[in-house]
Amino acid sequence: MTHELLKDLSSAEAGQALKLGTKLIIPSGVSLFRLGDQANRLFLIERGRIRLTLPMQVRGREEDVFVEERSPGQTVGWSALIPPYRFTLAATASLHEAEVIALPREALLQHFSANPAAGYKIALNLAVVIGHRLQLFQTMWLREMQRTVEVHSA
Amino acid sequence: MDMLLMGLCLGVVGVVFVALAFGAAMRSESWDPVVQPEIPLVKAGAPARFFSNRVPITPAVPPLQVPIEVLLLQIENHVRMEQAAAESFLASPTQTLLHSKTTSPFVN
Fold first, then answer.
1. Taking CB atoms and an 8 Å cut-off, how many pairs form between chains A and B?
2. Which CATH number fits domain A4-153: 2.60.120.10, 3.50.50.60, 3.90.700.10, 3.40.1500.20?
3. A72-115: per-residue pLDDT in tens?
């Protein structure tokens, strides 16, 4: 399994980073984290899918609306490395149970200090993950804005 | 004297005839509110239309709503399609791909 966060790391460097984590099994439909929770751990998906949702008012009821789904090899919970360290989405295991590696922030930061070369590569990989999310949602936002403008100027 | 009596009789007969004719006419024009057919009411809010025999009346019942589970699935499908469209744009950024249409029911 190649994790996007550990791309370009040697197998030894990747192994050292993975040793910092703990494997967790998340049964189907069970929450990994909730919106607003303290974000102290970042998760690498080993197996299954993690569903990211946000609450939205639908017909006067608050419903968790699908935002994104992450697959094995991908990362969730990078709010653990970005102040104010609070999750901005909710995450649950999809239809099947999921397996993730939970990496604590403090252990990661200490590892980066002790291994700057590996820390630099992981930070670059994290920038790619965050940058892609930003570009994706910027594009989706613009498409929705375009439709709003069309509706209101028709 | 005879002429006077004859004229008087004819006058009385004429008045009776006119009274009977008037009574008959009034009976035929009378109406019964129970059997009067109802005239369909056009809602006050309906827009004024001219030269049309068919003025649609807005149904009092709102259109059927899909169950909320179906609506949430439609939202999810919409988000997935929008993400796929956004991914296509990011892979090859052009103005055409940025505003490409999907089959989502929320935009059609």
1. 46
2. 2.60.120.10
3. 999 999 999 999 999 999 999 999 999 999 999 999 999 999 99
Distance CA A67, CA A33 (A): 15
Contacts of A142 (CB under 8 A, 6+ apart): B98
Beta pairing, strands A75-76 & A61-70:
unpaired
Residues A28/A95, Cβ–Cβ less than 8 Å: yes
CA–CA distance, B11 with B56 (Å, rounded to integer): 59
| Residues 78-97 in B contacting A (C-alpha not used; CB under 8 Å) | 79-80, 82-83, 85-87, 89-90
Predicted complex ipTM: 0.87
As a residue count, chain B comes to: 108
Three-state DSSP string of B17-86: HHHHHHHHHHHHHCCCCCCCCCCCCCCCCCCCCCCCCCCCCCCCCCCCCCCHHHHHHHHHHHHHHHHHHH
Burial class (CB in 10 A: 0-12, 13-18, 19+), A148: exposed
Q: Is B71 within 8 Å of A132 when comparing Cβ atoms?
A: no
- Reading the block at residue B24, the tokens are 């008959």
CA atoms within a 13 Å half-sphere pointing along the CA-CB vector of A88:
10
